[in-house]
Predict the structure.
Amino acid sequence: MLDFVQQLVSGVALGCVYGLIALGFVLVYKATEVVNFAQGDLMMLGGFFAFTFIGMMGLNYWIGFAGAVAAMALFGMLAERVVVRPILGYPQFSIIMATIGLGYFLRSVSGMIWGTDDFKIDTPFSQGVLRIGSLVLADDKLSVIAATAILCTLLWLFFNKTTLGTAMRASSENMLAAYYMGIPVKRVVSIVWAISAAVATCAGVLLAPITFIHSNVGLVLGLKAFPAAVLGGFGSIPGAVVGGVLIGVIESMAGFYLAEGWKDVAPYIVLLAVLLLKPEGLFGLHVRKKV
Amino acid sequence: MRFLFKTDYEDDIRLFPHSGYFVSYGLLLAVLLIAPYVLSSYVMSQLVFVCIYATVGVALLILTGFTGQASLGHAAFLAIGAYTAAYLQKYGVPFPVYFLAAGLLTGLIGALVGFPALRLQGIYLVIATISFAFIVEEILARWESVTNGNEGMRIKAVSLFGVAVSRDSPTFYFLCLAVLVLTIVGTLNLLRSPTGRAFVAIRDSETAARSMGVNVALYKVKSFAISAAITGFAGVLFAHKLSFISPEMFTLQLSIEFIIVILIGGAFSLHGAVLGAIFIVMIDPFLTYLKDDMPGIIAGIAATFGAGTQAAANVQSKVATFASLNGLKGAIYGIIIVLFVLFEPLGLYGRWLKIKLFFQLFPLYKRATFKRQKIYVKSERNR
């Protein structure tokens, strides 16, 4: 029983990691209906920025963290301006390909700049552990869980309660109509890319003690976070976190109880099963087009 | 400029609309047939890869280009074809039999994948095919009694009519070429049949296709099965060309490469598959060439512009360091994809059409002819 609970808890922690990355996917999708395959690589780049500020320049952890988030927000805007804006309004497939290309580019360029080694950032959470009874939970994992909960709540409030959030939802439904209503669609899209790059950076920095930072981390985790976002229904913020947690728990349970090899495929099998029964994911909107 | 006067529906779907086609494709075929006796063995080997990639490209075009169903799982179909061939060959099954068997089995699995895909749209379909590819990759690595796990499998040379055909021989090249040509002709015939028109109708609007009486589910599954079967055939040739296969060859990376083939070639015409295949196969030798020769060339240029010997050598070493950077290939890949999506969405074949039209209409060519329409009202969520 204790094993089970321990696996459950570490699965939830792992799942929050996926959820945190999936939040970025969902954000961009929710506001612009663009699927950003480079999200994982934005996370990786954010981690490297933070490493540069904290590990190489020796800044305070929190200052470095904030600096990396700010720098990445600018970078997100830049990426949006250069890659995404010219093709807004074209079929989704071209935008997916463009972001795949962007991902390739970011991966190899950061490999060139920072090399191919694993990097680690010293954080205030690196050492401690939390004990509840005989349960053991490392502080760095707790920090991820807490950050996921906070960011998820903030983003949910942002989308549902603020004017800007409503504008974002409007422009995703119908860009032209939103533009006629006086919503500055271009600026909205730009802002959403900045936010999602910032969220990705938070994920990258918090993950640094757990997964380390290397130029492929974005691809590896991105490929897990992507099913998480789909599982939750691509346009739902709480869905992303729930999907992430589900994937994390399934993965850690499969790793513990099933034979070797199941760990990596189990999330995908579950994902396929869910998609079969509910093609829009767990929290997705199901709307049929009327002719 | 030639004007075709069409008087019949038959004129619209002819494989060769006018005699010029016989001349140009006949010439192309002649060149391809004498190629192995003229070109070096290295170039021939690249040409074989072009044939294989183009075959997969055509398969992917049927599914993505003409039926509008995105797939990032074609590496898995290729793997199934390759492994079927390798497994059956171990038991002494002759080449024609396992070639067909590989295609059939892959087609069957393609249809099975097609069923769940019926209800999925856009991004959900992409992730479902990625998941499928991951599961196949893991099965290949774990099912050791059949696939030999991560150790991989060796494949002996093709034996045609009792004669072993080495993977570098002209005969093997002709085999690959024949498969490619048959695939292309078969696909062209498919596309001008009711099935092909149903595919295109589904791509353009599923709702409209359904209201015109197209059985959307049936045709989607058909499209998946045909596309997978062709990829399975290509997989057999791929396995023979490499003579060794292991699970880590058939990763997501390969699936993305196939998508790049049709993206760069042009996803609206079969020409695109071939052009894209040439592009993607040639990019590696080209990068090697850049790495080896570019520093010297740039230093030469610097020297002609008055740089001293010392400065030229300096430039040469700088360029050499840059060219041998580790991730350069990935970066160039990324830039190429982005540039094509941004500036040449119709791909290489689209560029060729534009150039052709420019000369046909010489002083009257307008850029706007090929301008894409932006559709801002698009929410793909409600369709």
